[in-house]
Amino acid sequence: MTSEPIRLGVAGLGRAFVLMLPTFRADTRLRLTAAAAPRAASRTAFRGEFGGTTHADVGALCADPQVEAIYVATPHQMHADHVVAAAEAGKHVLVDKPLAVSLEDGARMVAACDRAGVHLIVGPSHSFDAPVQLARQIIASGEFGSLRMIQALNYTDFLYRPRRAEELRTDQGGGILFSQAVHQIDMVRLLAGGLGQRVSAMTGAWDAARPTEGAYSALLQFENGVFATLTYSGYAHFDSDIWMGNVGELGHDKDPAAYGTARRALSGADPASEATLKARRTYGGGESPAPPQHHEHFGPVIVACDRADLRLTPDGVEINGGTSRGFRAAPLHAAPRASVVDALWQALRHGQPPVQTGAWGLASLEVCHAILTSAATGQIVDLTRQIAAPTQKEEP
Amino acid sequence: MTSEPIRLGVAGLGRAFVLMLPTFRADTRLRLTAAAAPRAASRTAFRGEFGGTTHADVGALCADPQVEAIYVATPHQMHADHVVAAAEAGKHVLVDKPLAVSLEDGARMVAACDRAGVHLIVGPSHSFDAPVQLARQIIASGEFGSLRMIQALNYTDFLYRPRRAEELRTDQGGGILFSQAVHQIDMVRLLAGGLGQRVSAMTGAWDAARPTEGAYSALLQFENGVFATLTYSGYAHFDSDIWMGNVGELGHDKDPAAYGTARRALSGADPASEATLKARRTYGGGESPAPPQHHEHFGPVIVACDRADLRLTPDGVEINGGTSRGFRAAPLHAAPRASVVDALWQALRHGQPPVQTGAWGLASLEVCHAILTSAATGQIVDLTRQIAAPTQKEEP
Hints:
The structure is a homodimer. By secondary structure, chain A is an alpha/beta fold.
């Protein structure tokens, strides 16, 4: 094994890539050697910042001999073809969540990577957030007895951020199930050990102008008896970040006076001007995230154990014991999302895959579909593709 | 119709009565004319404070000609016999929640009151809280479009307050389902219009020393398409009052340094000393509630409508609109729980029963049982005893 930086090619220089920029700029374990993007402006910006080779299509990126692993950050509905192409070219893959839109595509991707003997990691997702990882360690330690119940909720402006048309079509992987539920599911599965069993859920699609699911509530049971409530609304009314110390999803302090910004910005936009707003949020489009003061988070999460309830915060884990309350900080790394790079590094340089493999991502995707199915049929949906999180290893 | 004060007899001078004391002391629409209680000390205290007649058993209270209506505040498992006895004696009834423990008892009570032509009102419950009533008015007005989703959660120290043995036995109406879930269900049904349809739920009984349900999570669908998530834990770890401005259930400002008081007070108590602690909380036992600074509440409640999410607070309703946030106060009355007296007054003096009739309470009790049944069977439970909240009348 080498300890050389991982030579990473990037497929897609859109919003997901922009959110990874602070990591790519700061983490010396990665070297961005190539990228593929349809927009010339993005490719130019990439060469200007990182050097390396750029390609107009993902096929050429997959064939690039300088590339050791590919970060697939293309739109959801393209993940399957791009991951399979990367695997068939012998490249390891980091694919942004969700793994895929359909379970069939997801299974095809896992099989292709297995066949090719390459690592497939699904991330970033909020299951990589340091407070989530810390909570997982605390649970696994047994310090507070058995895990019993989890409650996760999040109220955001997701549906009113600028969108391309397909991001508002459920069958193309749009709406909150594939973009947002998958975060909550990933976190909750990680905390509960992974083996979901049954799902009962309701969904809401309440804005005819943005005709996709914008809210859901789900009750998820696990094989180990743990149960979890997951609730999400992307309709931009109540903002549950007030219960996260007014820290936003990406770890930045929020200005309470900025209430309603997303909806105001979008007000009066037609599909064309909305696409322009969206393009501004992609690489080379002008926006660039400032360094966060806190960890990323995905809304309030309460984890009930026998002798304490853990409350995740943007800075760590609050330990609500029987007679006293404490706090354990999750230290900030110099580069945000260092745990995503950890996962890639451990897999490619030490042969130790993370929890969030392709099969793990497929299990989380199964829960997304189960929520849709339960809501559509009014039935409880049994899960069949779940896998357990491996027993926690010692820190490397 | 007279406008004389209602001549109220009280059956049971325990904790429920103590919590009504500020109301009974301040609201001139009621006159406490009699009481029944097994403890001589409670009867003496009652005569000392209110005058009137006291009885050792409820049968004698029912026969008391000075009594126009009876407030049944005896232990849950005695509600049925006491309410039926009151009805058969021709007395109107205010019965503390829950209506009864079993649905059969509940139906028997409703039938007895119907047959006798007396009013049966189930209260107090947190559905009478002024912010809940205000939220109901806002929803009914249609100002913010259709109601879509409700989330209610509450994390308390319920299971570690001093208890008599039967309060920790589910079959006797103990545990959180009959004491606590019924509040949440009553509130949510009131906000959603009343007609529950199906329930999916999980419960937890995680403390072998207090072997009854201490937590649950439920997904409740309504006939009108609204769905609600209800979560409760009485295991005294995380305290969700931090999300209610550090105001406790009874409307008092909480001292954050008092974290863990209930568990500490109970620590090392055997059943006998716990019974002594419990007795201290009954009438004449020494404890007396101070006047609250805020309304009572039952934990965070978020109500999603098309154009705003309503967040209930101990002072009113926060209106989270699309682009701005506002607040509507629910003014404090001189006497807390005035809305319970309103209900009694309107029924007995104006012939207008409140929403919270016996049939309403039976419908809420049905949801309690549905939660237990769904958790036990792993199935979704269809509801058959639901009734609608009447269309909102003008304020009298």
